[in-house]
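SEQUENCE-TO-STRUCTURE ENTRY
===========================
What this section holds: a protein sequence and its matching fold, both as plain text.
Question of interest: how does this chain fold, as expressed in backbone structure tokens?
***
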Amino acid sequence: MLIGDVLAITAGLAAICASAWALMVGVAVMFSHRTRIACRTVERNGWSTLAIGLPVTLVGAFLSIVLVGAANPAAKLVGTVLYLGLLSIAVVGAGGLAAFVGRRIEPLDPSISPFKALTRGAAILVLGCLLPIFGWFLFAPILLVMSIGAGVRALVAKPVAPPVMGDFGATQ
């Protein structure tokens, strides 16, 4: 392995982490109502969120892998759409998890804004997944499963009231 390979892998990993962080923050801000629901779900029912996410992740991943590996191009397309849909659900849930971690950070620094707490929460989640062995094989898979569980619960929840522009930090 040459130094160029090492630099390419490092730059690729940094780009993936920056993209994941930006995606979590962007989705949390754009879909603040669903993010709030996902955050409340994780806060109140953390283990049930994991229990909901596990079968959805296993079935969705199995079906998408089987369909993507099929010889039929239409099946490949369906498999691709399936895993992209699963990852879209995970991003909504990850925004809720980032908001949850951000809420836990806010009491530690009274001068922090809700947006800054959200961005720090997302950074903590992304950087936690970089930890060798523990982060790769334990934290990241649990985070993915919880994100899918929180995303499913946030997307199927009936909205209490229509979302209001600019009320991200509001509580209901």
Residues 73-105 form the longest helix (33 residues).
